[in-house]
Amino acid sequence: MVERKLATVVFVDLVDSTGLVAGADPEVVRQRVSGYFELVSGLISGHGGTVEKFAGDAVMAAFGVPLAHEDDVERALRAALEIVPAVGALGVAVRIGVQS
């Protein structure tokens, strides 16, 4: 028998990443993007999510797989709401999509 789980996916994408790199020192860009990935990954993990992959300047994460919680949707939304101001402090902005 196949077990079905409700999963919630969070997709975090940098706004104007092209503008971030244009004319900037590559080492500075690498440090900012690495800091962004680390910050977002930490917030997702802190809320019980799992980072599934990095795609370009985006982070895709799942809540509810492999470990499910009753409140995975709420955890995903709380993580998303915490990510926006946290990355703002790094001097970048993001767009976030959440789908269950």
Please give the structural blueprint.
Elements lengths: L7 E7 L2 H5 L4 H21 L3 E6 L2 E6 L8 H17 L5 E6 L1
Antiparallel strand pairs: 1-3, 1-4, 2-3
Walk me through what this model shows:
The protein is an alpha+beta fold and 100 residues long. The protein contains three helices and four strands. The chain has a four-stranded antiparallel β-sheet, with helices on one face. Helix 2 runs antiparallel to helix 3. It is elongated. The two termini are 22 Å apart.
Structure described in brief:
Helices cover 43% and strands 25% of the residues. The chain has three helices and four strands; from the N terminus they run E-H-H-E-E-H-E.
Features:
100 residues; alpha+beta; 4-stranded antiparallel β-sheet; 3 helices; 4 strands
Taking all Cα atoms into account, the compactness measure Rg is 15 Å
Q: Give the rounded overall mean pLDDT.
A: 92
Strand order of the largest sheet: 2-3-1-4
Helix content: 40-55%
Fraction in beta strands:
25-35%
Would you tell me the structural class of the helices and strands? alpha+beta
Oligomer: single chain
Q: Low-confidence runs (pLDDT<50, min 5 residues)?
A: none
Kindly, what is the distance between the CA atoms of the first and last residues, rounded to a whole number of angstroms? Answer: 22 Å
Tell how many strands the DSSP assignment holds. 4
What form results from the Cα inertia axes? elongated
Helix/strand order, N-terminal first? EHHEEHE
Counted by DSSP, the helix tally is: 3
Largest sheet: 4 strands, antiparallel
